[in-house]
Amino acid sequence: MASVFRSEEMSLMQLFLQVEAAYCCVAELGELGLVQFRDLNVNVNSFQRKFVNEVRRCESLERILRFLENEMEDNVETVKLEKYPETPLPREMIDMEVQNLEQKLEAELLEANQNQQTLKQNFLELTELKHLLKKTQDFFEVRGLFALPTDIFTAGVIKRERMIAFERLLWRACRGNIYLRYTEMDTPLEDPVTREEVKKNVFIIFYQGEQLKQKIKKICDGFRATVYPCPESATERREMLDGVNTRIEDLNTVITQTESHRQRLLHEAAANLWSWGIKVKKIKAIYYILNCCNIDVTQQCVIAEIWFPVADAGRIKRALHQGMERSGSTITPILTAVHTRMAPPTFNRTNKFTAGFQNIVDAYGVGNYREMNPAPYTIITFPFLFAVMFGDCGHGAVMLGFALWMVVNEKSLLAQKSTNEIWNTFFSGRYLILLMGIFSMYTGFIYNDCFSKSFNIFGSSWHIIPMFKNSTWNKDVLLDNTVLQLDPAVPGVYSGNPYPFGIDPIWNVASNKLTFLNSYKMKMSVVIGIVHMIFGVVLSLFNHIYFKKYINIILQFIPEMIFIVSLFGYLVFMIIFKWCHFDVHSSQSAPSILIHFINMFLFNYGDASNAPLYLHQKEVQSFLVIFALIAVPWMLLIKPFILRANHQKAQRMVRDVDQARGIHHSKGKTEETDPKTRSELEPGVPFIGQVPGRPLRPCLCTVISYFVILLGFR
């Protein structure tokens, strides 16, 4: 239970595995998800590591899987299993490469795509030729065009957007010695490469002479216009058109068969694509971890260093034993404790309920090892602070209904394994949304607000009739004033019993509704916010006690509490005191808290228009301000000098050991200044991180940085 409020205790172990069992043991540890491996090959290039070839093979398989996924697009749905597949053995990876992906699916699908593209290109050319023959026939027959015996004509197809520039260049290059006619194709075509719709025009050019023919050919090539052979006689054109139609019908049959074969290959891949992707990712992760391990000189033992929670040591050993059995090895993995001064990783154990809140906390920064974990407290504070801002029971009910639907249908929604990022964000925070909905309904009832409307469940405590009985209101007052104000000091206007729960519904029709509610919510937010900050500072006390940093209690926690309680805690006191002290009869003389708080810092107490809240207020406020000012140098200046003294003390210890070992110092420098060599000569003496003989000077940046940190009220 303690691990909920504080990060888990971690242990560093050295793991010895047989080479044959290393793969399976790492796979079992990966399925467990409780181990962090240290990279023991930091100084080794990624391309020089032991299993770099296996990682490359996995990347090749990932490329093939991406290719298959892109080919499926939205036409073919992949089959997702209810459970994730187990980690495959290395020999299964070879089978996946040779039988399923490289030799079969990828090769066949690439061949089918190439054949289909070639067929569609032929189909496009035949379709263009068919339209060209039809339009050319129209030019000669319907529109009455005729060619002289010496005329030469060229016919072709060009993209519609290039037609105007094509015509202008032909006219200028040929100096008007051509006759050009063009028309639009009735049906748009499909580009076989980009699969986009293309609109084209059919053109025919009449000219004389071989020189113009060469110019027109070059211009057509420049505009990527396709020129087709077109017979001169009408009979030959009709015969050619009949042949083109026959070839198009045959080509359609072949294209249909090719597409059906391609779809069959894609459906075959879709049945296993999702599981293949999971397996390849697991294999790649295992070899990536193995690249972080060392292999002894005999090439028979893999050495790794792992961090894991102390509470899960038994589960780690069982996972290693299962990996040994799966690999068929008879040598038991060996775990040995490693004593180190390295900072262990922070691990906060979560479940499906607390994971969303832990992610919110981690987004602001992961705490240090064994520090108090604020996530359990965030389960209450975050939804409640959201509800203070949101505060509408109608909208809260909508959020609650949506969250309940996700929680009730949790298993079926998880089984869908959606890849939509926005949906996954909402679903992973379903319990957060559930609590936000509940708290929003609660604060909505306090604000008496439901879709900007109020409830009148218990009846208002305010009454209008006594205002007339007291002669405060009469017919003339009603006629002369558009806005009337109820006076709670008049007997019977306010019953004295507050509305049982929340804001009285009469405020919904009041003209000063916003003024009253904004003042109420602002003061409530100040109270809640300051209590929240004080709670955070109190949590830091438990960290100081746990880590036995008693100097932080004296020089950090105590002045922080003095500062925040003396100023902001006193502000909360004034808000609550004013609420409790002044009633309807004395509310007109109630002083302004804001003016009092400003005068508190200015030591200005001569303002007769702002009466004191209580007796001896001047003395109390002066004492609190002076006490708060004393706390500032207390928490900013003393600790840096103590840290400096400790640092200098450690330096003197290092210097004394150096002199005892014969390492001479001269003018602030030593003959041996290499930290690595020093740690080898003196394994029992810690290296401070600064060259000996060069004292640490107090700088203004250190003091300012410390001041900024403390102002955060951690």
TrEMBL record:
Q: Which InterPro entries match?
A: V-ATPase_116kDa_su, V-type_ATPase_116kDa_su_euka
Q: Where in the cell is it found?
A: Membrane
Molecular function GO labels: ATPase binding; proton-transporting ATPase activity, rotational mechanism
List all membrane-crossing ranges: 379-408, 428-447, 526-547, 553-577, 620-643
Its primary localisation, in coarse terms, equals: membrane
Query: How does the entry describe its membrane topology?
Result: Multi-pass membrane protein
Q: Key word Flavoprotein present in the record?
A: no
Q: Span of the secretion signal?
A: none
In the record, the note on similarity to other proteins reads:
Belongs to the V-ATPase 116 kDa subunit family.
Query: One short Pfam family name for this protein?
Result: V_ATPase_I
Q: Could you tell me which PANTHER family the record lists for this protein? A: V-TYPE PROTON ATPASE 116 KDA SUBUNIT A 4, VACUOLAR PROTON ATPASES
Q: What protein is this chain from?
A: V-type proton ATPase subunit a
Q: What does this protein do?
A: Essential component of the vacuolar proton pump (V-ATPase), a multimeric enzyme that catalyzes the translocation of protons across the membranes. Required for assembly and activity of the V-ATPase.
Which stretches are annotated as coiled coil?
51-122
**Gene Ontology terms describing biological process:** vacuolar acidification
Keywords on this record?
Coiled coil, Hydrogen ion transport, Ion transport, Membrane, Transmembrane, Transmembrane helix, Transport
A cellular component annotation (GO) from this entry: vacuolar proton-transporting V-type ATPase, V0 domain
